[in-house]
Amino acid sequence: MASAADGEEAGSDQVKEAATVYQERALIPLVEDVSEWLTRLVGKTILPEEFMSSLDDGVVLCQLIQVIQAKQNNPLKEKVKYNSKAAKGGWHARDNAATFIMWCKHFGVKSEVLFESDGLVHHKQKREVVLCLLELSRFAARYGVEPPAIIKLEKEIESDEKLISRKDISKSAVQRRPARGSSHLADVDKEVAEMTSQCTCSPEFYVEKLRDGIYALGNKRCLIR
Asked: How many other C-beta atoms lie within 10 A of the C-beta of residue 111?
């Protein structure tokens, strides 16, 4: 007969499994954006479904450093050295990964978003690799390196937050959340309208589509993909 403790343990496992699935799904659009970004910068096709296997020897990451260094336009800056023929899973691959990680630290990327060499080489830290590259792209944008699409939208949202406050949005521009059972908002994507129509928030809550993928939900600017 199963005990209460067994039931709690099974419930905990289900929660962990659900959280893992959610994180993996949330990572998909980020991997797609970063893959496209790397492809554009280094000139080598990086497919989202082959993301880690395309990076695990560290060569593409070191090539990315060279692209950013070229944009920095500092002739006194020592160019990164790496092994372009590193074998997957070998010491040279780890050395390339370590070179990239160390360079990121000097470039200003916080240690909280860095990954470990083995995490790249053995495909154990996909999420950390993606977040590290996104953070690096934010710094690189200061030197004219075009960032991934997700970072562009992020910057647009930040600009909106600075320029638009809730008080500045006129009543004519605001699209109110419809009551349950009423028609969807005219200029809001169907999926977003369906989600917000089920909301039980205060009547003061509103939904406004600012541009493709960017919405005002109440007094917050959100990216919805």
From this structure: 8
